[in-house]
Every structure is written in C-alpha cells, then in structure tokens.
Design a protein that fits this description.
- The protein is mainly α and about 130 residues long.
- It folds into 2 domains: about 50 residues; about 80 residues, Homeodomain-like (Arc Repressor Mutant, subunit A, Orthogonal Bundle), CATH 1.10.10.60.
- Helices cover about 55% and strands about 5% of the residues.
- The protein has 7 helices and 2 strands.
- The chain has a two-stranded antiparallel sheet with strand order 1-2.
- Helix 2 packs across helix 3, helix 4 crosses helix 5 and helix 4 crosses helix 6.
- The longest helix has 19 residues.
- The N terminus and C terminus are likely disordered.
C-alpha cells in the first residue's frame, strides 16, 4: 500500500510498471489505501485527468516505444501494454496520437505514411511528419 496519501507519485510509478495488470479504479484505490471517490478526486487534482484517461495515455506511450524499437506484432504490443485487444489499442492510439500504430511504426522506419482521414478530412498526425502517397 502507498503510505503517502498527499502524493500519487508512488501509485503512478506502480501503474507504469504494471500496465498489464488489472488497473481498475477499485484496484487502484485499494493500492493507494483510499476510497474510489477520494482517489478519483485526488487523481484529477494532481494529474489533471481521470485514472482511466491517464492509464490509456501511459499505455499508448509504451506502445509507441515498442513500435519504435521492436518488430513485435501489433497484437503482442497491445498485450504487453495492457490493452484488452489490438482493436482497443488502435482506438486509443488513434484518439491520442492521431494515427494508426502501423503508420506510426512506418514513420519511424523512414517510409512514407498516408495520413488518416475522418469524415472526409485529413487528420493531422501528431508526433511525426507524414507525406501522402
């Protein structure tokens, strides 16, 4: 359990090291020795996001690292990062990064990337330059 209730630093570090574990609010609250309501409130105050939003961002950041540095399959990366499936990872990745995991990986290998389109409009790719084919 986390002794320091004033800071969530220990919990955030634990989450980062346990992305593949059950990171539901009740589990996190037990780990932090707080009620779910208190944890939610303190998390939002100290981190600026809900626990679920912050965890999704950390998982996507880890997926980005694996996409940049390994040749692991997208499905394996999703599993390593704690996503329920590759589809769930793709949804979070697209929302947070603005592109697909495959396009992101290709960009780091120096290949051209076709920008994502939503509702007939090109989505601005964040984090790297992309050129249309």
């Amino acid at each position: 359990m986390i002794a320091d209730h004033a800071s969530l630093a220990s919990l955030l570090t634990w989450i980062d090291r346990n992305l593949g574990s059950d990171l539901s609010l009740p589990v996190l609250a037990r780990r932090a020795a707080m009620s779910t309501r208190t944890l939610s409130r303190r998390f939002r105050q100290q981190v600026g996001a809900t626990p679920a939003t912050w965890i999704a961002r950390v998982r996507v950041r880890r997926a980005q690292q694996l996409l940049e540095t390994t040749g692991l399959a997208i499905e394996r990366i999703a599993e390593e990062c704690g996503f329920r499936s590759a589809t769930v990872m793709r949804e979070h990745f697209g929302r947070i990064v603005g592109t697909t995991p495959l396009a992101y990986r290709l960009a780091f290998r120096g290949r051209t990337v076709t920008p994502m389109r939503r509702n007939g409009r090109t989505v601005r790719l964040r984090g790297f330059a992309a050129t249309a084919r």
